[in-house]
Amino acid sequence: MTTYLIIAVLGLLVLLVSLVVGDLLDGALDALAGDTFSSAVIGAFLAALGFGGALAEGLGAPVPVSLPAGAVAGVGFGWFAAWLTRLLRSDTSGSTPRTDDTLGREGVVVTAIPADGYGTVKVLVGGHAMRLNARLDTDHPIPVEPGTRVHVTGAISPTAVTVAPTWRELG
Fold it and tell me: Which residue ranges does UniProt annotate as crossing the membrane (predicted)?
């Protein structure tokens, strides 16, 4: 087994541990450029350095050529790991939808909504199905049956909204 393959396996182990356990260097290298020196980036760099160098060596390149070839591969994969880490950390699309996010959206009545009480509606927000308690808007005090399409007109609490039947349902 060549030295390059040992470096590659070490890099894969660092990468695997950082993915399972979390960043091993969390906070240790914060003075240096952000995510540039996280354990995932270092693991990706070492793995690519080792495999790139081993590939160049396997093609017959001497060490003065295989080492820079591995380093170029390592820098490329390390940059990609840093970019991917930044992208994942800045992603806000996975945030939990709130009741306020349902305002103006259409939903479907799941359990009947009586004129003077609460029923249940299902509203889709960013691919998340939210089941909320629902009370009829004061402008539409007519009971609404399950399966009726409604429009969310207001938020009462974190788990309840006011709704009105859509125009399609009224006509």
Answer: 6-25, 37-55, 67-88
